[in-house]
Amino acid sequence: MDIGFCHMVRRLRRVHPAAASLGACLLVFCACTTGNDGASEPGYSGWTLPVPQEKVDFTLLDTDGQPFDFREGTDGYVTLLFFGYTYCPDVCPIHMANIGAVLRDFPFEVQEQIKVVFVTTDPERDTPERLRLWLDNFDRDFIGLTGSREEVNEIQTAFGLPASVKEEVEGGGYFIGHSSRVLAFTKDNLAHVAYPFGTRQADWATDLPKLVNERWGTR
Amino acid sequence: MRFHSATTGRSILAAILFLVAGIMGCSPGREPESIDLEVTAAFAAEPATGERTALYFTVTNRGSDDDELIAVSTEVAATAEIHTTVRDGEMMRMEEKDALLVHAGEVFRLAPGGIHIMLLDLQETLRPGDRINVTLSFRHAGDMLVRAEVVPYAELEETLAEANDHAGTR
């Protein structure tokens, strides 16, 4: 029902741009129901993708300035992939902080099977050093990657995510519009589930150990 | 931490949960029939990099008139802007808003992924447990001074939920 409500709001916004602010307010109330192209897999609070998303081959610089081959570096791990930027005060740090807080409470043998990869959508401001400093707030093991805006947009598109958009604001400065979805790859190197913004720590705490043990299709 | 008390205008003092709010003054022009605004559950995130952070709170309008938050200021930040996170499909982007309308009888929650006050160009280092003074300027209720507690990003979700539960504003 909530989903239908979201659809309704989106249609409204298309028809009448002036209703955008109303739509934004209303959308706050269905913040946990984004991801209209999937359904909840039984047992998962994230959204199951209609077609599992394959990994994309790309190599970007990590926060040590070393090339990081995504496929090779995450092969066989549960991998959470997110695109965002460090000047983002709301969505990005909350997503990362929630994941970091939950991981801390897992036994080491679960923690070591999960990798979190954060790719910046703001390469102009997010230097590898800054990215490291920012990620360390949440987890020192989070992997931070930087590349040119074009490269990163191409990668996002290949993952089926919208390319990020730079929006200038009055008085200088800019925001980056970007996907709010965390792609969760399992050990088969496919993302079957994605997590929208609004995913709570309790959801991560339940889902991550399941993703670690997941054997798709052999249940 | 410092606390600024109301010095002019009519004042209603409300002690609420984690903060104390002073309502003072009133703007010229049309006089609303009744003003009864309460701000609760005020929290700022511990900045992840130092220059900026987000502030959240809940405004309860028990009066019979709508009111509008028209400005926010705090000594800990050079600029404070009202931001809304606009969701377009799965894309999320921020937009600045000039004002925030709080209808009569409404409980308006600023929340992650929704509306937040962006504190830009922070002037001080904010650590968990710090309390910051923030002046919320409403069109009718005038200036309201609130104290917001600084909490780590990882604790925002739970802290806001608990504070709103406690105040019955969830």
Largest sheet of chain A: 7 strands, mixed
What is the chains' assembly state?
Answer: heterodimer
What is the alpha-carbon Rg of chain B in Å?
15 Å
Shape of chain B: globular
Q: Count of DSSP helices of chain A?
A: 8
Q: What share of the residues of chain B lie within helices?
A: under 10%
Please sum up the structure shown:
Chain A is of the alpha+beta class and 219 residues long.
Topology of helices and strands:
The complex is a heterodimer of chains A (219) and B (170).
Chain A: H1 2-15, H2 20-28, E1 39-40, E2 47-54, E3 59-61, E4 67-69, H3 70-74, E5 78-84, H4 91-104, H5 108-111, E6 114-120, H6 128-135, E7 143-145, H7 149-158, E8 165-168, E9 174-179, E10 182-185, E11 190-195, H8 201-213
Parallel strand pairs in A: 5-6, 6-7
Antiparallel strand pairs in A: 1-2, 2-11, 3-4, 5-10, 8-9, 10-11
Chain B: E1 11-16, E2 19-24, E3 37-45, E4 53-61, E5 67-74, E6 77-88, E7 91-97, E8 100-102, E9 107-109, E10 115-122, E11 131-138, E12 142-151, H1 153-166
Parallel strand pairs in B: 3-12
Antiparallel strand pairs in B: 1-2, 2-12, 3-4, 4-9, 4-10, 5-8, 5-11, 6-7, 6-10, 11-12
How would you describe the overall organization of this protein?
The complex is a heterodimer of chains A (219) and B (170). Chain A is of the alpha+beta class and 219 residues long. Chain A has eight helices and eleven strands. In chain A, helix 6 links the parallel strand 6 and strand 7. In chain A, helix 1 runs antiparallel to helix 2. The two termini of chain A are 30 Å apart. The N terminus of chain A is likely disordered. Chain B is globular, with a radius of gyration of 15 Å. In chain B, strands 1, 2, 3, 4, 5, 6, 7, 8, 9, 10, 11 and 12 form a twelve-stranded mixed beta sheet that branches. Chain B is mostly beta strands. The longest helix of chain B is centred in the last third of the chain and has 14 residues. In chain B, strand 11 and strand 12 form a beta hairpin. Chain B has one helix and twelve strands, in the order E-E-E-E-E-E-E-E-E-E-E-E-H. The chains are: A alpha+beta (219), B mainly beta (170). Chains A and B meet through helix 2, helix 4, helix 6 and strand 9 of A and strand 6, strand 7, strand 10 and helix 1 of B.
